[in-house]
Protein backbone atom coordinates (compact mmCIF):
# COMPACT_ATOMS: atom_id res chain seq x y z
CA UNK A 1 0.00 0.00 0.00
CA UNK A 2 1.37 3.44 -0.90
CA UNK A 3 2.67 5.71 1.82
CA UNK A 4 0.97 8.98 2.66
CA UNK A 5 2.85 12.18 1.97
CA UNK A 6 1.87 15.31 3.79
CA UNK A 7 0.96 18.14 1.44
CA UNK A 8 0.05 21.73 2.25
CA UNK A 9 -3.54 21.32 1.14
CA UNK A 10 -3.99 19.11 4.20
CA UNK A 11 -3.22 22.04 6.53
CA UNK A 12 -6.17 23.49 8.42
CA UNK A 13 -4.13 26.38 9.83
CA UNK A 14 -4.91 25.21 13.37
CA UNK A 15 -1.55 24.08 14.78
CA UNK A 16 -2.82 21.56 17.29
CA UNK A 17 -5.06 19.90 14.69
CA UNK A 18 -2.41 19.89 11.99
CA UNK A 19 0.05 18.27 14.38
CA UNK A 20 -2.46 15.58 15.27
CA UNK A 21 -3.24 14.96 11.60
CA UNK A 22 0.48 14.65 10.86
CA UNK A 23 0.82 12.18 13.68
CA UNK A 24 -2.01 10.07 12.19
CA UNK A 25 -0.19 10.12 8.84
CA UNK A 26 2.94 8.89 10.62
CA UNK A 27 0.98 6.05 12.18
CA UNK A 28 -0.58 5.09 8.85
CA UNK A 29 2.89 4.99 7.31
CA UNK A 30 4.16 2.92 10.21
CA UNK A 31 1.33 0.47 9.57
CA UNK A 32 2.28 0.33 5.86
CA UNK A 33 5.86 -0.32 6.81
CA UNK A 34 4.85 -3.09 9.20
CA UNK A 35 2.50 -4.73 6.68
CA UNK A 36 5.05 -4.65 3.89
CA UNK A 37 8.14 -5.35 5.93
CA UNK A 38 9.21 -8.24 8.03
CA UNK A 39 7.04 -7.36 11.00
CA UNK A 40 5.48 -10.17 12.96
CA UNK A 41 1.73 -10.39 13.30
CA UNK A 42 2.11 -9.18 16.86
CA UNK A 43 4.01 -6.10 15.74
CA UNK A 44 1.39 -5.33 13.09
CA UNK A 45 -1.27 -5.75 15.76
CA UNK A 46 0.47 -3.23 17.99
CA UNK A 47 0.74 -0.57 15.28
CA UNK A 48 -2.81 -1.23 14.17
CA UNK A 49 -4.11 -0.66 17.70
CA UNK A 50 -2.02 2.48 18.00
CA UNK A 51 -3.33 4.02 14.81
CA UNK A 52 -6.94 3.21 15.71
CA UNK A 53 -6.59 4.51 19.28
CA UNK A 54 -4.88 7.68 18.20
CA UNK A 55 -7.46 8.36 15.49
CA UNK A 56 -10.33 7.89 17.94
CA UNK A 57 -8.66 10.16 20.51
CA UNK A 58 -8.14 12.75 17.80
CA UNK A 59 -11.82 12.63 16.82
CA UNK A 60 -12.83 13.20 20.44
CA UNK A 61 -10.43 16.15 20.73
CA UNK A 62 -11.72 17.67 17.51
CA UNK A 63 -15.34 17.34 18.58
CA UNK A 64 -14.58 18.98 21.92
CA UNK A 65 -12.89 21.84 20.13
CA UNK A 66 -15.87 22.25 17.79
CA UNK A 67 -18.16 22.29 20.79
CA UNK A 68 -16.13 25.10 22.39
CA UNK A 69 -16.32 27.25 19.25
CA UNK A 70 -20.02 26.35 18.79
CA UNK A 71 -19.51 25.04 15.30
CA UNK A 72 -22.97 24.86 13.70
CA UNK A 73 -22.29 21.63 11.76
CA UNK A 74 -20.89 19.77 14.74
CA UNK A 75 -23.61 17.12 14.76
CA UNK A 76 -22.99 16.22 11.15
CA UNK A 77 -19.24 16.16 11.73
CA UNK A 78 -19.70 13.97 14.79
CA UNK A 79 -21.85 11.54 12.83
CA UNK A 80 -19.23 11.25 10.16
CA UNK A 81 -16.58 10.50 12.81
CA UNK A 82 -18.87 7.97 14.47
CA UNK A 83 -19.64 6.06 11.29
CA UNK A 84 -15.96 5.86 10.45
CA UNK A 85 -15.02 4.89 14.02
CA UNK A 86 -17.36 1.94 13.76
CA UNK A 87 -15.74 0.84 10.53
CA UNK A 88 -12.23 0.97 11.93
CA UNK A 89 -13.23 -0.76 15.17
CA UNK A 90 -14.68 -3.54 13.04
CA UNK A 91 -11.35 -3.91 11.23
CA UNK A 92 -9.57 -3.97 14.57
CA UNK A 93 -11.86 -6.74 15.75
CA UNK A 94 -11.52 -8.70 12.50
CA UNK A 95 -7.75 -8.51 12.79
CA UNK A 96 -7.85 -9.66 16.40
CA UNK A 97 -9.94 -12.64 15.27
CA UNK A 98 -7.21 -13.65 12.85
CA UNK A 99 -8.33 -12.07 9.57
CA UNK A 100 -5.71 -10.51 7.39
CA UNK A 101 -7.16 -7.01 7.15
CA UNK A 102 -4.22 -4.80 8.18
CA UNK A 103 -3.43 -3.54 4.73
CA UNK A 104 -7.10 -2.95 3.90
CA UNK A 105 -7.45 -0.98 7.13
CA UNK A 106 -4.38 1.10 6.24
CA UNK A 107 -5.82 1.95 2.84
CA UNK A 108 -9.23 2.75 4.30
CA UNK A 109 -7.67 5.03 6.89
CA UNK A 110 -5.56 6.75 4.31
CA UNK A 111 -8.37 7.33 1.80
CA UNK A 112 -11.06 8.28 4.29
CA UNK A 113 -8.91 10.56 6.42
CA UNK A 114 -7.27 12.43 3.57
CA UNK A 115 -10.66 13.07 2.05
CA UNK A 116 -12.16 14.04 5.42
CA UNK A 117 -9.32 16.44 6.23
CA UNK A 118 -9.47 18.10 2.83
CA UNK A 119 -13.22 18.48 2.87
CA UNK A 120 -14.91 18.32 6.28
CA UNK A 121 -12.06 19.60 8.43
CA UNK A 122 -11.38 22.45 6.04
CA UNK A 123 -14.93 23.60 6.49
CA UNK A 124 -14.44 24.35 10.17
CA UNK A 125 -10.91 25.79 9.74
CA UNK A 126 -12.01 29.34 9.19
CA UNK A 127 -14.36 29.44 12.15
CA UNK A 128 -11.89 27.89 14.57
CA UNK A 129 -9.11 30.23 13.44
CA UNK A 130 -11.37 33.25 14.00
CA UNK A 131 -12.30 31.92 17.41
CA UNK A 132 -8.64 31.45 18.29
CA UNK A 133 -7.78 35.02 17.32
CA UNK A 134 -10.65 36.39 19.36
CA UNK A 135 -10.42 34.21 22.46
CA UNK A 136 -7.04 32.66 22.77
CA UNK A 137 -4.45 34.48 20.73
CA UNK A 138 -1.58 32.60 22.38
CA UNK A 139 -3.66 30.01 23.86
CA UNK A 140 -5.27 26.70 24.20
CA UNK A 141 -5.42 25.54 20.60
CA UNK A 142 -1.77 26.18 19.85
CA UNK A 143 0.41 23.18 20.16
FE1 LIG B 1 -12.85 15.61 11.60
Question: What do you see in this structure?
Answer:
It is a single chain. The protein is an all-alpha fold. The chain has helices at 15-36, 41-68, 74-96, 102-135. Helices cover 75% and strands 0% of the residues. 25% of the residues are buried. Bound molecules: fe (ii) ion. Residues 62, 77, 81, 116, 120-121 line the site of fe (ii) ion (FE2). Residues 62, 77, 81, 116, 120-121 line the site of fe (ii) ion. It holds the Pfam family Hemerythrin. This is Hemerythrin-like domain-containing protein. GO terms for molecular function: metal ion binding; oxygen carrier activity. Residues 12-125 form the Hemerythrin-like domain.
Topology, pairings included?
Layout lengths: L14 H22 L4 H28 L5 H23 L5 H34 L8
This protein binds fe (ii) ion.
The site of fe (ii) ion (FE2) has 6 residues, from helix 3 and helix 4.
Keywords: Iron, Metal-binding, Oxygen transport, Transport
Pfam family, one: Hemerythrin
Family: Belongs to the hemerythrin family.
Amino acid sequence: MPYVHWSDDLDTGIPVIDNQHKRIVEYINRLCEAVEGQATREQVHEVLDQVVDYTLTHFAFEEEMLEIVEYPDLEQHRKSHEAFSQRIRQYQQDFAEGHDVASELGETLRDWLMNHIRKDDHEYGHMVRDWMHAHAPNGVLQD
